[in-house]
C-alpha cells in the first residue's frame, strides 16, 4: 500500500465518520439551521416555526415551494426570486437520513411517522391550549426549535397544563 492510498483510505474513513455523526445528531433531536436565508426567516418563520430543512425530504420541499398559492389553506405566494432563494436552501439542506426517507402525508412534518412517534404521549387537548395552538407550533415546548434544537433537554411544559397533565409531563 502506498502513502497516497493510505492517505485516501484515512480521508474516506474520516468523511464516513463525519457523515454518520451528523446523521446521528439529526436523529438525536438537533437538526441545525445553517446559512439560513433572511428571506426564509422573514417569509416562512414569520407565520410558523422556521423548520429545519432536514425535517423533510427534498421532494416534499419541492411540492411545498411550488404550491405556495395554496400553502395549507393560505396564499403564501412569493416573488420568483425569493422562491428560488428559499427553495435552493431547502433543497440543498433537505433530509436524507432514515426518518425522512419517505414524504409524510400532505408533506406535513406533524404527520410524519417520526413526529407522531415522538409525540405519542401528548394528549390531543395539549395541542389545543392557547399557548400551543397546534402541533406545528414547536417553540411552545421546544425552547430552541427556532435554532434547530428539538432535544429533550430544551423542553419546557407549555402554559395552561392542568395538574394531571403537568404530572404526566414531569414523568
Which terms summarize this structure?
disordered N terminus; about 170 residues; about 40% helix; mainly alpha; single chain
Please characterize this protein's 3D structure:
The chain is mainly α and 171 residues long. The protein is 42% helix and 0% strand. The protein contains 7 helices and no strands. It has helices at residues 3-27, 38-44, 58-66, 80-92, 113-118, 124-127, 163-170. Helix 3 (58-66) runs antiparallel to helix 4 (80-92). The chain is globular, with a radius of gyration of 19 Å. The termini are far apart. Mean pLDDT is 82; it is low at 3-28.
Brief summary:
The protein has 171 residues and is mainly α.
Give the arrangement of secondary structure elements:
Layout: H1 3-27, H2 38-44, H3 58-66, H4 80-92, H5 113-118, H6 124-127, H7 163-170
The low-confidence runs, each spanning 5 or more residues with pLDDT under 50, are: 3-28
> How would a crystallographer describe the biggest sheet?
none
Quaternary structure: single chain
- Put simply, the count of helices is 7
Q: Give the total of beta strands.
A: 0
Element-level helix/strand string:
HHHHHHH
Beginning-to-end CA distance, first to last residue? 56 Å
Secondary-structure-derived class: mainly alpha
Q: How does the overall form come out from the CA principal axes?
A: globular
Mean pLDDT: 82
Radius of gyration: 19 Å
